[in-house]
Amino acid sequence: MRTISELEAVARERLDPVHYDFYAGAAGDELTLRANEEAFSRRVLVPRVLRGAAKRDLATELVGSPLSMPVLVSPTAFHRLAHPKGELATAKAVAKAGTVLVVSMAATTAVEDIADAARQAATDPALWFQLYLQPDPEFTESVVRRAERAGVRAFVVTVDSPVFGRRERDHRNGFHDLPPGLVVENLRDGLGRVRDIEMSAGFTWEHVAWLKRTTALPVLLKGVLHPEDARLAVGAGVDGLVVSNHGGRQLDTAVSTVDALPALAEAVAGAIPLVLDGGVRRGTDVVKALALGATAVGVGRPVVWGLAAAGEEGVTEVLERLREETDHTLALCGAAAPGDLTADLVR
Fold this sequence. Notes:
Its cofactor is FMN. This protein has helices spanning 4-14, 17-24, 31-42, 86-97, 111-121, 137-150, 168-173, 205-214, 227-235, 257-268, 283-291, 301-332, and strands spanning 60-62, 65-67, 71-73, 100-103, 126-131, 155-158, 219-222, 240-244, 274-277, 296-299. It is an alpha/beta fold.
């Protein structure tokens, strides 16, 4: 079974260089992109021994969705740039792995088709839907209703994108539009036209309240890094937070996610779950995040590398590698389950 870095090397060989840069790149000097991984490397594990952890159980639960392991698949755009089957292959692999796929609003496959593919692979797959709130509330509501009818179980609202990040690789490459034949299928309106995703710096907590009134499904916010925003989210009745800096693709020099995590965990004080997203490449990273207060982690780029390298089987390879490494690290830290991990195991 290959490592994630080995899969990335294969993906880089197979992808169009412009498309590789789209996935791999980030904003500005890409300092935050590198910091996400480096911050995990700076932290060391201090394992416990003689804890009787011969049998381990990685299963957990997030806002009503069961996960066979504390790893879910974060929303990433344009999977059909990486492989012809795109999100369909990803959905099947994630469903078979028994974890959550967060469907990107910017998917190149419609949410209905993604849901059908997941149901072909598993009896009751868990899909969530990532949402950029749009300035047109009627269109936003129409997207919400489509996702609900498709059977998603939660909405993940990206809140760190008042404007698009400056991704200099894309500017240098002139990558601004999808190739002919590919569109963002979840942005079709009632007339069949495909809209552009619109960012707005004018959104406030009232727009989150509007979404909470609009859907009965759980609502998580993705892109929260400041403890005060975490406290406000708890007060607003948000169901969970994704600790994320958008993989470094929005604000360069933003704090790394694992550096931000402890203060956010203190701020929410267990009132709502935290998902750490960004920089996870090994099972040791998963365990460090769980010990510091996350209920689960999300992975984005690793899934794209697996998809580009070997389609559905490549995504499976990524997820099973993380499952095996997480289980192995739990054993070496004397833990039988994610809930046994505590912050004193990490320095």
